[in-house]
Amino acid sequence: MKDHLKLTSKQEKTLKRLEEVLKQQNVRLTKGRLEILKIIIVKEHPTLNDIIAVLEETGHKVNVMSVYNTLDMLLDKHIIYANIFNGKQICYEPRVQESYHLKCDSCQEVHHIDHLGQFGEFFKSLTKSSEVVGWNCDHFKIEIHGTCPKCHEDLLKKNH
């Protein structure tokens, strides 16, 4: 089996952190489960079909029901999130404390942003707001709609 999924150091840390969470929940870490989790970490917003394609490309024998069951288990254990963009296909991503997506309403491109940067204070205020009403904020996701730089530039050219 060839393994062309190379993890960055940040992705490696995410994988290790999620493996630890699974171990704490007494989940068996089979090669198949770890490979699916690795694909979700490396590929941006993979669909079920994307995950199956990568497994096949890397020489894994694919049992579609096992992939479904693994995704269900990872969702149930809060290891991954499922997102629906454009009201169509379900995409998966690893759980991070805070994340947001920038979605271009023109070309439908979705960009995942997982670094806090200047939004750190904003995320802290969201967490504080939930605590004020008695909630314990575990995580949140934000989807921001607009126009990407390329589509915005194309629109400006078209209007001039």
From TrEMBL:
Q: Does the keyword Transport apply?
A: no
Classification via Gene3D superfamilies: 3.30.1490.190, Winged helix-like DNA-binding domain superfamily/Winged helix DNA-binding domain
What biological-process terms (Gene Ontology) are attached?
negative regulation of DNA-templated transcription; regulation of secondary metabolite biosynthetic process
The annotation note on the cofactor reads: Binds 1 zinc ion per subunit.
User: InterPro entries, alphabetically?
Assistant: FUR, Fur_C, WH-like_DNA-bd_sf, WH_DNA-bd_sf
GO MF terms listed in the record are: DNA-binding transcription factor activity; transcription cis-regulatory region binding; zinc ion binding
Q: Keywords for this entry?
A: DNA-binding, Metal-binding, Repressor, Transcription, Transcription regulation, Zinc
Q: Which Pfam families match?
A: FUR
Domain of life the protein comes from: Bacteria
| Record's keyword annotation contains Repressor | yes
Which cofactor does the UniProt annotation name? Answer: Zn(2+)
Which residues take part in binding Zn(2+)? 104, 107, 148, 151
Name the protein family. Answer: Belongs to the Fur family.
Task: Spell out the protein name for this chain.
Answer: Fur family transcriptional regulator
Q: Which organism is it from?
A: Entomoplasma freundtii
Q: Which gene encodes it?
A: fur
